[in-house]
Amino acid sequence: QVRLVESGGGLVQAGDSLKLSCVASTHTITTNAMGWFRRSPGKERQFVAAINWSSTSTVYADSVKGRFTVARDNAKNTMYLQMNSLKPEDSALYYCAAAPGTTAQAMSVPTFSTHYWGRGTQVTVSS
User: Which residues are CB-neighbours of 41 under 8 A, at least 6 positions away?
Assistant: First the structure.
């Protein structure tokens, strides 16, 4: 069974940066598109960014474009999310997902679903 484990969250000030990591328990995940999502208390799940297996295609939510960068290192079974110029509204539980047989673009739609989710890492941005 595939496990996804996020790390790198924390408490930072507005304008600071954080880098999140998502490590997969199996190398087979490297053939999957992978993505980042976030959820704040009382709000729906929000798509953040996704990347295809070969890193040739990335997709971002409008709210993070130009500030966040998604990347992956398949040799390390790891996906990253570099978050710069953080804002208080970026505060949320960030979690990663893997999606066999789909595209990065497909992960951005509200109806996206998969069996492969991590448990999340908390990001809190103070003003």
Answer: none
pLDDT (0 to 100) of residue 87: 98
User: Which residues have C-beta within 8 Å of that of residue 35, sequence separation ≥ 6?
Assistant: 47, 48, 49, 50, 51, 59, 70, 96, 97, 99, 104, 107, 108
**Can you give the length of the chain in residues?**
127
Per-residue pLDDT of 31-48, as tens digits, reads 899 999 999 989 999 999
Quick one: tokens of 112? 């996206």
For residue 6, count other CB atoms closer than 10 A to its CB.
22
Question: What SS3 state is found at 84?
Answer: coil
pLDDT less than 50: residues of the chain: none
Determine the Cα–Cα distance for residues 121 and 127; give it in Å rounded to an integer.
20
CA 4 to the chain's CA centroid: 11
In 3D space, the residue among 94, 95, 99 whose CA is nearest the CA of residue 114 turns out to be 99
The owner of tokens 């998604």 is: 70
Q: Which amino acid is at 75?
A: A
